[in-house]
């Protein structure tokens, strides 16, 4: 029987292919009241092994860009559209995204972030419910309804894009800087200033 324990999904069996390819459900990490909620597409091999989103090389890129933007990984919440690793690291399928959508909406609702930052094409299109030209729209903020609630969604390229195409590094860092400035404007101070 599937259920959520707080923000964690436990025991979900909705997707046969994902259940067969995962070694664990990879839930979100970070404060449950974070101003920024980062959403990736799905766990990869490192995430499946370690049980945490955005570890390994992509996680290192994300952590570095967060520091450059004046943030710490511990200040933000990081999750994925789909919580189980797809076979061969393929993109999650529409049905898999749909099966996990209620979990993501519950997490967004409970965290109630100032901004949801999509990391890559899959989460951007999933949350904005339209085609997204990620490189062209990176750093743009859109007002959308998610689970009936108004939300701000900021589009960003995926951290891994900077590894395959170094010209994307500036685009990625600029998007994170925009997210940090936006939350700073809301709170009136730097997140690092609280520590």
Automatic annotation (TrEMBL):
Q: Which Gene3D superfamilies match?
A: Uracil-DNA glycosylase-like domain (3.40.470.10)
A family per Pfam: UDG
InterPro entries documented for this protein = UDG_Type-4/5 (IPR051536), Ura-DNA_glyco_family4 (IPR005273), Uracil-DNA_glycosylase-like (IPR005122), Uracil-DNA_glycosylase-like_sf (IPR036895)
Query: Could you tell me the EC number(s) of this protein?
Result: 3.2.2.27
The GO molecular function terms of this record are:
4 iron, 4 sulfur cluster binding; metal ion binding; uracil DNA N-glycosylase activity
**Where does the record place the Uracil-DNA glycosylase-like domain?**
27-177
Protein biosynthesis: is it a keyword of this entry?
no
Q: What is the main EC category here?
A: hydrolase
CDD domains in the cross-refs: UDG-F4_TTUDGA_SPO1dp_like
SUPFAM superfamilies xrefs: Uracil-DNA glycosylase-like
Keywords linked to the UniProt accession: 4Fe-4S, DNA damage, DNA repair, Hydrolase, Iron, Iron-sulfur, Metal-binding
The superkingdom listed in its UniProt entry is: Archaea
Task: Enumerate the catalysed reactions.
Answer: Hydrolyzes single-stranded DNA or mismatched double-stranded DNA and polynucleotides, releasing free uracil
One of the protein's GO biological processes: DNA repair
UniProt record similarity statement: Belongs to the uracil-DNA glycosylase (UDG) superfamily. Type 4 (UDGa) family.
Write down what this protein is called. Type-4 uracil-DNA glycosylase
Q: Which organism is it from?
A: Haloarcula vallismortis ATCC 29715
């Amino acid at each position: 029987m599937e259920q959520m324990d707080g923000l964690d999904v436990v025991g979900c069996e909705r997707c046969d292919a994902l259940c067969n390819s995962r070694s664990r459900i990879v839930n979100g990490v970070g404060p449950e009241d974070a101003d920024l909620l980062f959403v990736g597409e799905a766990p990869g091999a490192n995430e499946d092994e370690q049980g945490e989103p955005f570890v390994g090389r992509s996680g290192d890129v994300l952590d570095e860009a967060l520091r450059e933007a004046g943030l710490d990984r511990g200040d933000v919440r990081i999750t994925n559209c789909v919580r189980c690793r797809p076979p061969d690291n393929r993109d999650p399928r529409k049905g898999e995204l749909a099966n996990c959508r209620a979990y993501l909406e519950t997490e967004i609702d409970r965290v109630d972030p100032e901004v949801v930052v999509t990391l890559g094409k899959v989460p951007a299109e999933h949350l904005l419910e339209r085609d997204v030209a990620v490189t062209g729209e990176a750093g743009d903020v859109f007002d959308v309804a998610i689970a009936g609630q108004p939300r701000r969604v900021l589009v960003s390229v995926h951290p891994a894009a900077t590894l395959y195409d170094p010209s994307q590094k500036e685009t990625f860092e600029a998007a994170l800087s925009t997210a940090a400035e936006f939350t700073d404007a809301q709170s009136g101070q730097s997140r690092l200033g609280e520590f």
